Amino acid sequence: MELSRDEEAALAGEHGEIMEMAYRILVATGEAADAKRLVPVQWAHLSGVNYNTIGDAGEKFLRGISSKGAKVKIKTTLNPMGFDVDYTHDLDDEFVSKQLSIGDSYRSMGVTPSYSCIPYEIYEMPKKGAQVAFAESNAAVHANSLDGVRTNKESAFSALASALTGKSPYSRLRMHDGDDDEKGKKNDDDDDDDDDDDDDDDITIRVRTRSKPKNELEYGLLGYFAGKVGDTSVNISGTTAPSAMDRRECKAICGGMGTSGTCAKFRFVEDSTNGEQVDYGDEEMNQVRDELDTAENGDMVVLGSPQLGLQEIADLRLRLKGRSFKKRCLVFCPRTVKESAVENVLALERAGCEVLADCCTCLSPLITADRADSVITNSVKGAFYLNAGGVYTDLRPLSDILESETC
Question: Fewest CB within 10 angstroms: 51, 92, 123, 234, which?
Answer without folding.
Answer: 92
